[in-house]
Amino acid sequence: MEKYNIAIVGATGVVGRKFVEVLERRDFPVGECYLFASKRSAGNVLNCFGRDIEVTELTEQNVMALEGKVQYALFSAGGAVSEKFAPVFVRAGATVIDNSAQWRQHPDVPLVVPEVNPDDVKWASGIIANPNCSTIQAVVALKPLDDAFKIERVVYSTYQAVSGAGIRGIRDLENGLKGDPTLEKFPYPIAGNILPHIDIFLEDGYTKEEWKMIVETRKILHRPDLKVTATTARVPVFNAHSESINVEFVQKCTLEDVKKVLSEAKGVTLVDDPSRALYPMPITASGKDEVFVGRVRLDDSVKSGINMWVVADNLLKGAALNAVQILELLTGGEI
């Protein structure tokens, strides 16, 4: 089996470590692996792929020293780092799969969810963007419904776990549950609370997280005029995002038709048996690769529409797993 040399940028972060975990679990054929992080983390040693690898400081000189030696680079180090260093890795001969928001709306950069728009990797010219975690799980459920009934409008309401805010968000919840008021990430306590505020507020009153979901859904589904609105909130859950999604269709649908489409959709697991109180939850979705869908019901307030509840592990399908699936697409593997 051919092996591929890869770099992981942001290797010591929450998602960076997940990259390694997913690559190992899926037996991706890694040859050499180069770990990059900030100067503060440089020199640390991580055990990856059965060997100890020292973390290298991310500098242009250190990247260009690997020119021609790295085929693929997985990035999860924030937008500013991606803006500066993704082109450097491309110059060094690597294809970059970037988990930040930096390149997602660039017209020359595909925004890819392998179950939804795999062919978009074909027009990449060095950088492929990994979508926002909350968008990824939503479009995995929406794409087969769009194919079957043509979506007219989407209304998102999200309930997002603190792991989506990184290690400082996790610590804020841990501290709060212990009665420690110390805050490292959020403007208010998250334990016992809900914050309708993810990322910065924009001039129109939406947050940037809400804007991301709107524009990314349109780009991934190739529906630039699709009507989409969103409200995103941070909840006191450690891992796995939940979403209430209201969908209006152009074509008439029945509940049976909708459930059949979802039950056969790639990457989706339908968990929907109200008689036995079976529905997706963060505690059952955490650590799993699939997007779980339940509470599917017709919306009688419109001519043709549904409500559904969508849950997925935001660090796996919402970040590291989706990036690795893109990598597998590029190397001819199965998703």
Question: Would you give an account of this structure?
Answer:
- With 335 residues, this protein is an alpha/beta fold.
- It folds into two domains: 140 residues, Rossmann fold (3-Layer(aba) Sandwich), CATH 3.40.50.720; 181 residues, Dihydrodipicolinate Reductase, domain 2 (2-Layer Sandwich).
- It is built from nine helices and 13 strands.
- A seven-stranded mixed β-sheet has the order 3-4-2-1-5-6-7, sandwiched between helices. Strands 9-8-10-13-12-11 form a six-stranded mixed β-sheet.
- α4 packs parallel to α6.
- The longest helix is centred in the middle third of the chain and has 17 residues.
- It is globular and about 60 Å long.
- It starts with a strand and ends in a 5-residue tail after the last helix.
